[in-house]
Write a structure and sequence with these properties.
10 helices, 5 strands, homodimer, alpha+beta, disordered N terminus, 267 residues, five-stranded antiparallel β-sheet, elongated, Arylsulfatase, C-terminal domain
């Protein structure tokens, strides 16, 4: 009986080709692959440990940076407006809200691999009640990213995301048609790289640009040093930061108001 | 005098807005960015150290795997032909050459970050003199990749890359029109992600698929387990490898000839 069963199995498998030595070799090969898998997992864990350790080292430096930035008027507004991607997202009204932006913070979750948050803190302002607007990105083990965000509690008649304020003031829009603040309310889930609609992918792009490009070195954009670089060319850009100190001179050039002086002369 | 010089500079800078405190703040900010840059470099170095250490741990496992594979006939040929990208690169003639393929090896340079090599070792064969064909990818600090490769020393009338052999034998081509072996002779330089022509990008794709997909787990392809997975969906695919042991049974399933049993019944 045993023999027959075995025989049948061999027939199924076109046994002529499948000699026991081959089966054995493939089993051994599978064991080696399992070993490799374990080594790879251990390597990933070790890399993660390094990233966690260095995130802890970076945190107080980021905190110190936030304190310094706090004393530079319109720092984040200027950095956003000088950024080739982010500058297209702020409407004229959004820019007025950004005048009240007190701090920006990007924080990995403690284990690094399960997500991060982006927090905008605002001074009391005529637009919304919130002191903070936060967007949270959670990565699952299955490779999906889910997003939650604070929908701003707009004050009466100040909701920038329904277009009312913009129409009322009849602004010419230098930048975005839509409000950046829509981004906080929107939520989405990213399954994997394929099959994302463009809209969703822009949605994640904003987060990734803030986290991976603006946040590591906002001074580069504040100083407008990224102008001549191809935006895609991030790696080389990092080498160009040494002469960033000269940046202050470029500050506020655009807001120059030559008319004021003339009026003074006439009176 | 000093005062005047200072004044002139301030005028240039639209000084009304540029108080010394602001200049100081921006200088401090630059210092913090420099600190961050140092932390980031240290973090990269530590990650690299981990990768180097684990490459050393993997090497003997890969060597052991190569020995096992050596005893499985046509292992690499089968894995190539079962791979959704690589299978399109082997012409009928290439497949005959692959019968002489004795081993495949992918090795990072010792420092990991400066490059890697892909080596195909062949048994003595009627096609070319070389015992090994190697392709070397060198990364520069500036982000470019340069490639060198062994051009096969074809035996008389056996050069698959000039199309002569193929024409002579008047083969219907199930797979590639061009020979895979052209890939060894081609050389190219990749400056950055943007601006690569399609041709160059296919060129690097072959190397990347071999290095990052085939090499980590060729058994998956040999067993034909990757069939139902979207090729792009690599991350999830790795979770599916646990049941790879059953692979031997699936081997050659497609060549099953159901007629045999019926014939047995009739006789």
């Amino acid at each position: 009986m045993t023999d027959k069963g075995k025989r049948a199995k061999v027939d199924e498998d076109e046994g002529a080709e499948l000699d026991p030595e081959l089966v054995m070799a493939i089993e051994k090969l599978q064991e080696v692959q399992d070993d490799l898998e374990r080594v790879n997992e251990e390597a990933s864990d070790k890399v993660l440990e390094v990233e966690q350790r260095y995130n802890e080292i970076r945190r107080p430096v980021y905190n110190k940076r936030n304190e310094i930035i706090h004393n530079i008027p319109d720092f984040w507004l200027t950095a956003f407006l000088s950024h080739p991607v982010l500058n297209e997202l702020l409407s004229d009204e959004d820019q007025k809200v950004f005048k009240y932006l007190e701090s920006l913070d990007v924080e990995d979750f403690k284990d690094v691999k399960s997500g991060y948050s982006i927090t905008f803190a605002f001074k009391p302002n005529p637009y919304f009640e919130d002191a903070k607007l936060t967007k949270i990105f959670k990565f699952s083990d299955e490779g999906t990213t889910s997003v939650t965000g604070s929908v701003p509690k707009w004050k009466d008649g100040m909701d920038l995301t329904n277009g009312v304020v913009a129409e009322k003031e009849n602004h010419k829009r230098a930048h975005a048609e839509d409000s950046f603040f829509k981004w906080f309310g929107d939520s989405a889930q990213k399954e994997s790289l394929e099959g994302i609609q463009d809209e969703v992918s822009t949605f994640f792009l904003v987060a990734e640009v803030i986290k991976d490009d603006l946040w590591p070195n906002p001074l580069k954009y504040f100083n407008n040093e990224a102008d001549e670089e191809e935006y895609e060319d991030d790696e080389e850009a990092e080498d160009d930061e040494d002469d960033a100190g000269k940046g202050a001179e470029e500050l506020d050039d655009e807001e120059e108001e030559p008319d004021e002086d003339e009026e003074d002369d006439e009176s």
